[in-house]
Design goal:
The protein has 291 residues and is an alpha/beta fold. Helices cover 35% and strands 20% of the residues. The protein has helices at residues 24-31, 53-56, 75-84, 94-104, 120-131, 150-165, 177-181, 201-206, 219-228, 251-260, 275-283; strands at 13-17, 42-44, 47-49, 60-63, 138-142, 169-174, 186-191, 194-200, 211-215, 233-235, 241-245, 267-271. The strands form 3 sheets. Strands 4-5-6-1-7-8 form a 6-stranded mixed beta sheet, with helices on both faces. A hairpin with a 5-residue loop joins strand 10 (233-235) and strand 11 (241-245). The protein is elongated and about 80 Å long.
Length: 291
């Protein structure tokens, strides 16, 4: 790990992104005081870690590297065991809080089912429920949609939005950039143990050059014009669609140059890169990379 300087604003949904093996979980474990950092300083909720762990961690809910529960008792009983072991939890409100956490993740109907009979997605939901047994200022979710079907994934996205709306800061670690892109307000991108990009979602996406797509029967001529404008471009096999990296020139100037040259424009649009496209352009790596 090197030069990982996370800045997670209060109330944000922070997407902590990168391929498996890029250092996300190791960073989270250091943030929560589970392993020691060799150098540098760590603050969580404005307090130094791990020195302030006893005051900070009760305000933090976390699901790291998948949930672990007793297989031969049911979901509700597993949550009760966790709640009883929490010295900061009020026993008088335990049942109420357990019911609320189960309902929040859609497990009310399966509350009395033994954990060993849970699907992978249900186990993941129970882990999130455990993180929600008490009000949290910060919720840290490591790969929270692992094992979930599309409906379950949508429900987790909805839950994250609701928690943020209620004032909880949420850090979501994931290698599924397209999923996090739909919910994050801020993102940090990891590669090889380094933080390579960070900022609001809009700021980070703006770091990638937009792509211009031109639909025209004059593909060869369009390619020539774009070359004169020093824009890197390519034409498809049919010669009817041209794509170019739009760097340094506004799109209206490019369109005007094409029209002046006699290029017939049937369509022209600008596409912003996705987070995954941006990651690949920055690092040259795909998401099957393991460091």
């Amino acid at each position: 790990m090197d030069a990982v300087d996370l800045a997670v604003p209060a109330g944000a949904v922070y997407g902590f992104l990168g391929p498996n093996g890029s250092g996300k979980t190791t960073t989270i474990r250091m943030l929560l005081g589970l392993i020691a950092a060799d150098a540098g300083e760590i603050e969580v909720l404005g307090r130094p870690m791990p020195r302030s762990a006893t005051s900070v961690l009760p305000r933090v809910g976390a699901l790291i590297e998948g949930p672990a529960f007793h297989p031969y008792v049911n979901g509700r009983q597993n949550l009760r065991r966790l709640d009883v072991s929490d010295a900061t939890a009020d026993p008088a409100t335990s049942d109420e809080r357990i019911d609320a956490a189960l309902a929040r993740v859609g497990l009310t109907a399966a509350a009395d089912k033994k954990y060993r009979n849970y699907s992978l997605g249900m186990k993941q939901r129970l882990g999130i429920a455990a993180a929600l047994l008490q009000p949290r200022d910060l919720l840290v979710l490591d790969e929270p949609t692992n094992g979930l079907d599309p409906q379950g994934t949508r429900e987790i996205r909805r839950l994250v939005r609701e928690l943020a709306h209620d004032g909880t800061t949420v850090l979501v670690s994931s290698h599924l950039l397209s999923e996090v892109e739909q919910v994050a307000t801020h993102v940090g991108m990891m590669s090889g143990g380094r933080l390579v990009r960070q900022g609001t979602l809009a700021e980070v996406l703006d770091m990638g050059p937009p792509e211009l797509r031109i639909d025209t029967p004059d593909g060869a001529l369009a390619l020539e014009v774009l070359g004169r404008l020093d824009l890197s471009a390519a034409v498809d096999e049919a010669g009817s669609a041209v794509t170019a990296s739009l760097v340094g020139l506004p799109v209206d100037e490019v369109a005007a140059a094409l029209v002046r040259a006699g290029v017939r424009l049937h369509g022209l649009r600008v596409n912003r890169p996705s987070l995954e496209d941006l990651f690949v352009s920055i690092t040259g790596e795909g998401f099957d990379v393991v460091h």
